[in-house]
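User: Design a sequence. Structure:
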């Protein structure tokens, strides 16, 4: 199930980001949950105990999208590492596109590490095109030296 997150979901969101490591700070997560121009959506899955008994819901992924004057910006998608590659990110991205259309945004923007090929393939599948590159934008990934480029991508809505 996909639904908007609120400040009541902050602990689950912070715990998910600690594992997903999408690069969003704890403070930024708190800020977007309170921002009327931001939407944080979560992908929840029912947890089962001993087969049929429900043990509650587990947050598997989240996405942050911000409403701008004429566009929307996808700021992050984070998915539990053990759930990556199982369609969670695609479902979240589909919901982000739908929400940006509801806002009547003209384009949906994002940036992604040039080395993040899984995310780039996902964005291309959802009709995002590369618009440019920010050279040396990101600090190098863990245990690597130097800096990494950011790809700027967008799609028309």
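Assistant: Done.
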């Amino acid at each position: 199930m996909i639904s908007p997150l609120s400040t009541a979901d902050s602990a689950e969101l912070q715990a998910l980001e600690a594992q997903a490591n999408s690069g969003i700070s704890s403070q930024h997560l708190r800020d977007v949950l309170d921002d009327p121009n931001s939407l944080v959506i979560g992908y929840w899955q029912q947890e089962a105990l001993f087969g049929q008994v429900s043990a509650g819901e587990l947050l598997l992924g989240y996405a942050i999208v911000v409403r701008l004057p004429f566009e929307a910006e996808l700021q992050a998608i984070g998915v539990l590492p053990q759930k990556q590659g199982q369609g969670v990110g695609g479902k979240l991205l589909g919901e982000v596109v739908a929400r940006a259309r509801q806002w009547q945004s003209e384009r949906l923007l994002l940036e992604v590490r040039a080395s993040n090929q899984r995310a780039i393939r996902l964005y291309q599948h959802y009709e995002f095109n590369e618009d440019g590159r920010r050279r040396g934008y990101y600090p190098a990934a863990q245990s690597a030296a130097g800096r990494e480029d950011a790809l700027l991508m967008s799609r028309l809505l």
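The longest helix spans residues 88-102. Helices lie at 10-20, 26-34, 88-102, 117-125.
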